Amino acid sequence: MLSERRLQVLRAIVQDYVGTEEPVGSKALTERHNLGVSPATVRNDMAALEDEGYIAQPHTSAGRIPTDKGYRLFVDKLAGVKPMTAPERRAIQNFLDGAVDLDDVVARTVRLLAQLTRQVAVVQYPSLTRSTVRHVELLSLAPARLMLVLITDTGRVEQRMVDCPAPFGESSLADLRARLNSRVAGRRFTDVPQLVEDLPEGFDVEDRGTVSTVLSTLLETLVEENEERLMIGGTANLTRFAHDFPLTIRPVLEALEEQVVMLKLLGETQDPGMTVRIGHENAHEGLNSTSIVSVGYGSGGEAVAKLGVVGPTRMDYPGTMGAVRAVARYVGQILAES
């Protein structure tokens, strides 16, 4: 275990390096931070931190920079989440409040996160597997043609055409709509197949074929839309940090283009709480020089998806974590009210 003083020295190194982009020397540390010890003691502490792998010397006669291990200790022990100011919170709320539908919520969230953190923002669409049915609407388009509209608790709307095997009257349609909603409204998508499997049996024989067709379309919609999607924005922000990537930013850009990679990194943990993956903790090689800060968002205290940012390991962790958490909270509120 590091002593309290060495933890202080590490915190000071991280803060200075993030702020100045320059390797940090012992003289600068003692001048800028009230560490209460001599430069010689700080040099000894830095040597010990280097021996234990928390900081490194990028080239001879330079100061020190934090390693992935140093950032990890900083995030776990030393970094409080920086709260957003009242004007920042109001700006977030005003920006997101104008959203008209789920696509707009996601698009605005990506733009907002990229602006607030000056990193690459990643927002996952709410997962249907973790969503519930708000309402199923059935509309008659022709005697044997219907439209099925599925509305989720996260504001997602899916529409499908249904060609019926026989004409289906308005009274039968109203009956099916009522019975279907009494079974599935407010229930998890994953529960729907069992909840509706015996529904056709309650209808007249001549209507059962149409009821079964409608149910097949509903279940196909659940399966089709199970595919996860995400939106990425602010990629141009990476160019501001080009010197933070050892060789080139191309591997990072390629990894960001692979939605499967990003979904895996966002979704590896079911924990809706804050997750910070630093450098080599990211399984994908192209992201070994980045950190990913993510958190779950959703309504009713349950996460339906994740959002976060990708940036260089030299990032303002307290500020980034605060922004990510605040935006997730507002998106959750919007979904709850939608």
Number of helices: 12
What can be said about the biggest beta sheet? 5 strands, antiparallel
Cα(first) to Cα(last) distance is: 49 Å
Give the rounded overall mean pLDDT.
86
Low-confidence stretches: none
Strand content: 15-25%
Number of strands: 10
Class per helix and strand makeup: alpha+beta
Taking Cα atoms only, what radius of gyration do you get, to the nearest Å?
A: 26 Å
Largest sheet, spatial ordering of strands: 7-3-10-9-8
Q: How do the SSEs run, as a string of H and E?
A: HHHEEHHHEEEEHHHEHHEEEH
Kindly state the percentage of residues in helix: 40-55%
Overall 3D geometry?
A: elongated
For this structure, the quaternary state is single chain
